[in-house]
Please model this.
Amino acid sequence: MIEPPKGTVRDWLDIRADQGGTGFVFPDGAQDLSWEELRSSARSVASMLTGLGVGKGESIALLYPNCREALIALFGVLYGGFRATMINLVAGDSAVTYALEHSGARYGFVHPDQLDLFTRTADPEAITPLQITDARGAVAELCDLAPEDHALLMYTSGTTGRPKGVVHTHSSLLAGGWTTTVAHELTEKDRGFCVLPIYHINGLCVTVMGTLVSGGSLAMCERFSASRFWGNLEKTEATWFSVVPTIISHLLHSDTNPSANTCQRLRFGRSASSALAPDVQRAFEERFEVPIIETMGLTETAAQILSNPLPPGVRKIGSPGIAYGNEAAIFDANLQPVVHGTEGELVIRGPNVMLEYLKDPDATAGTFSKDGWLRTGDLARMDEDGYVYVTGRLKELIIKGGENIAPREIDEALYSHPDVVEAAAFARPCKSYGETVEAAVKIREGSDLTPLALLEICETKLGRFKSPDEVHILLDLPKGPSGKIQRNRILEIVDGQS
Model:
């Protein structure tokens, strides 16, 4: 497929249903979901919402973990021409309350296990909970849909200030699945393996929309489990999986192994959402003999923007790869392109880029250049072959004595020790230097690794100035819904334990 998908999610679900076959399987025990049954159920949900008087493009909240019903609710909302508003179930009550209120949703599909969360966070006079079972037998004439109509509303993690509501159209949502399909050469013969929540952009666009666009199928787990990962992969006969670096590290440190059949069937594993430490990637590939394709994506770009090529193409360890389906460039502070090898801000332009931040024209305007480039906020450089190397976040840089220090450098030094499962450097405010460097790690169970040994590794690799003043060993590092370590929360946790 050379060009981005034309049409709407409704069009594409109709195509898949007419073709027939299984769309989704559930290793946790639920019944398989065919494309035809998904369309039929989605049509009922869409009809029920239309009958309730919900207007085209209006927000419908979804409070669901990964499950069969979540897919029916999601596709029902999209099929009907409404705006699927994905609620991050682990974002905290205040963030959920904000998303429900800010989105303007008058109705929400609520999984029975999330009724307590909904009761705590929703204004009962503003929003009514629904179940997909309420939709059985509903019939209504649905509104006309166009590619530029609103399809998805997903809130960013909100590390600074309030979360922002990212709006995607049917066109950009489908393009998000397409960039994955193109980069990984997905076909109707492929079956993906999803352990990331679909209320996160990686789970929703890479695996669900990638499956819709490619015409393959998807195995969906309720959540990640290191002990069941390889067994479920074998049971579902998946050909690829999408995870995050912390999951790769946990699998590497687990005592479970894939069967020879699984390794033979698996074309690749995919890593995204944050930087993958090169030492972890090499160790994983050496142990499991499964190639890991490092990629990069954003909520604002319906996930994937960069990917390394599949073998035998050139994979550059330490780089999330080259642009597929969109353009990538590096700009300076004046939003002008820089020469290859020069550090600047990574910018993206393409069919998968969001429409806007909901009800926030100032933030929307500040995120786009006048030429339509989306500013990612990531510091990066690009080599002559177009491979991007992310060096840090503009807002995450630690500024010690006026010198910029990228936390990622320190993370990678810590990950070079095989007993380190999770690692993240962070800043501590300091009157003398402005900020100083500290780090937190989780180590393998039974390891006798000490903070002093880790400090010595950092000093050897980075020199004293960039090295942490202190390394804290924690039972777990704080993580968001995708498994991405939340650097901004570590200082509070460390200080709370002292």
Q: What stands out?
A: Residues 230 and 258 are 5 Å apart (CA to CA). The chain has a mean pLDDT of 94.
